[in-house]
Design brief:
single chain, 385 residues, alpha/beta, Transcription Regulator spoIIAA, five-stranded mixed sheet, 13 helices
Length: 385
Amino acid sequence: MREFIQNPILATIKCNQIDTVFCTGDWTLDGIHQLEAQLEEFICSKNISTVMFDGSQIRAMDTAGAWLLYRTYKTLEQAGQTVSLQNFDTEHSDLLKMMSSYAAKTQLKTSIPTISFLENIGKTTYITFNNLINFLVFIGKTFTLVGREILSPSRIRWQAVFFNLYADGLTALPIIGMLAFLTGVVLAYQGGIQLSMYGANIFIVDLVGITLLRELVPLLTAIIIAGRSGSAYTAQIGTMKVTNEIDALSTIGIVPMELLVLPKLLALIILMPLITAYADVVGVFGSMLVAKFSFDVSITDFLHRFPEAVSTTNYVIGIGKTPIFATVIALVGCYQGFQVRGGADQVGKQVTLSVVQAIFLVIIVDAMLSVIFSWLGIGTLPNFM
């Protein structure tokens, strides 16, 4: 007795109750979904140990049909059944062999042994250590060039320095000023609420002065510069790497680091103290407005209290940290630019890495300096008397 499985599409299959599947029609992309459903139904409904596919009645077959038949063949084999093919044309047999060869290559590529946990740790440690060594080498080369240019100032490319002073300094004043102003407003308002509960409104000056001038303004300014200028350094140098301009500079006898790194480093070291001093003034002004209009601390009282609350040492500490921040930002930004390999997509990855590393290192350096100053007893506490 034969069982017929009808299919309204061009390709169909018929099978008997023993083991033979008769493939008929056009096994092509047209109607492949219905044929796939029919084969799956056959696989699920039959419980036989031997299956034979007969291709004598197939009119046409493309790669879609061949792949479907091959996949069904392998599914039955994995289920423990014996599967064979018979009466297929030479052309159809070659197509099925090609599918088998492709599947074998794909399986070989995906059967790479997975890296163990300890091996992954070792590989990550090695890459991190290697990157650290390369970064230290880059720092050494940079400061070697800095020393050479200090001894011979005529080698400094002042035009590039002035361009970076404008691009990284003057154009950054609006965003840094707004950030400093809002920081001063928020800090004075939040601190003033607590102090006003005890009638100590005047000590807003102490809170704002120490926190802004010594810690918050230098750190936030460095973070803004890292995101704004550090990323620009990486993008510029990385794009030049992609377009082989770095190699062209070396070919004509120009040292790339002397042209691309030193002007940025020098400009940022000059800029950071100046921008921080500007942000200090704007931040204190914002806190002064909040103290006057929200906590009845007049501008005269604020200004009179300010020199008593904020010592010169605290102000100098805040300004003095900024050249170190500038050095970190410039070195990280330029180094990541030189690390670009491949196409333009790598530039974006290095820019992201540059910003993250620069901000992270700035915070680490700030924390280390705070600990060192504390050990050395540098800086004074607010004068509450």
